[in-house]
Amino acid sequence: MKKIKDQIGREVESLADDLFTVSDFLLANPETAFQEFKASNYLSSVLEKNGFEVEKNVGNIETSFFARPAGCPQTRPTVAILTEYDALPEIGHGCGHNLIAAASLGAAITLRRILREKAGGLVLVGTPAEEGGGGKALLAEAGVFEKMDAAMMFHPSSTNIPGQGMLGRTKFKVEFFGRTAHASFAPDQGINALDALNLAYGSINAFRQHLRPDGRIHGIITHGGESPSIIPDYSAGLFYVRGASRKYRDELLEKVRKCCEGAALATGCQFKLEIFQPVLDPMKRNPSLEAAFMRNMQEVGIEIDADDGRQGSSDIGNLSQYLPCIHPWLAIVGPETAIHSTGFRAATTSSRGRKTLLNAAKMLAMTAWDFLNSPELRKRVKEDFSRIG
Ligand SMILES: [Zn+2]
């Protein structure tokens, strides 16, 4: 066992310059959700040069891809290493997905070299549009993960933890429809859509103090009228509700709907609530697979931080409802640098960012190796998956 882990470590180190090149290419060519054509072509070509056959446009998403070791028929169990490569508008790789892609390629190429003709249980899935597009949710719904037994990736962060809760999330638009009128000559003839949205926002705010600790509601007003002299006949806002279970997430949406209904009734407006797809599910964590990753964090010499309980949402939540998944976070910055910032983007090429990339590749390869080679671990992972709702 120790021998294999040392070998994984050495293989990843030998790929270091190539992996930095992958990360830097993505950094220099940022593409937002569903537009990652350069990235998916580039990553596919690197994989093809390293003994993989690549299928593009899987699950009906043009910028997705699916790579398996060339000449190795698929065997079970199969472990999927996930690759994100989309960037943010304006700030490019401020979420560090360039490091995710490079580390996942590093892990897959390393395992391919070590397992040789026995690499049939290894696949790498290129999952586009994590930022707002829910690529993993769409791929899972399309059945891309049907013949797989576990999936894993890492995400850069300011802490080192093998996993963290993630909230389910529904994004939606609220619109109110009223009637225009001159605000001074004939206010009695108008129906004020801005007032309706204002009342709805106020009711949502009042409700917010009654949320459970795992609930979140936040929103903005995107349309509030055209001129103070015209009673607005249209208003609109964008909102998120989040909850740690699908049930609570959906309950919160219904509460918000009631707030909107009440505001519509009070003002005489009509209202419409439109949900944006995909709706994100909470992360179904797998303690046994996280523990396997944690042992490899120790193997690589990484000190494990306490979980501060902060939670966001990601499309891996949806995937985690289909098969056991882990999404460990590994530090490339200190707590003073926020994710989704230019500082975080800069950290992806810092010496700490580079080191984390290599460590992540090692730990992913080690954990995938453990999963493929330990029936005992697989049994525990499977038990967790069926036990945890
Ligand atoms: Zn991200």
What does this structure look like?
With 389 residues, the protein is α/β, with parallel strands linked by helices. It has twelve helices and twelve strands. Helix 4 links the parallel strand 3 and strand 4. The longest helix is centred in the last third of the chain and has 23 residues. The protein starts with a helix and ends with a helix.
Chart the SSEs and their pairings:
Layout: H1 2-14, H2 16-28, H3 37-49, E1 52-56, E2 65-69, E3 79-83, H4 97-115, E4 122-126, H5 135-141, E5 150-152, E6 155-157, E7 168-177, H6 193-208, E8 216-223, E9 234-243, H7 246-267, E10 270-280, H8 287-300, H9 316-320, E11 325-326, E12 329-331, H10 342-347, H11 351-373, H12 375-387
Give the strand order of the largest sheet, numbering strands 1, 2, ... along the chain.
1-2-4-3-5-11
Please tally the helical runs, counting DSSP H or I stretches of 4 or more residues.
Answer: 12
Q: Average pLDDT value?
A: 97
Sequence stretches where pLDDT stays below 50 over 5 or more residues: none
DSSP summary, beta strand count: 12
- The H/E string reads HHHEEEHEHEEEHEEHEHHEEHHH
End-to-end separation in angstroms reads: 33 Å
**What ligand molecules are bound, each kind once?**
zinc ion
Q: Could you say which overall geometry the principal axes of the C-alpha atoms support? A: elongated
Question: What is Rg?
Answer: 24 Å
Class derived from helix and strand content = alpha/beta
How big a fraction of the residues is strand? 15-25%
> Describe the biggest sheet?
6 strands, mixed
Helix content: 40-55%
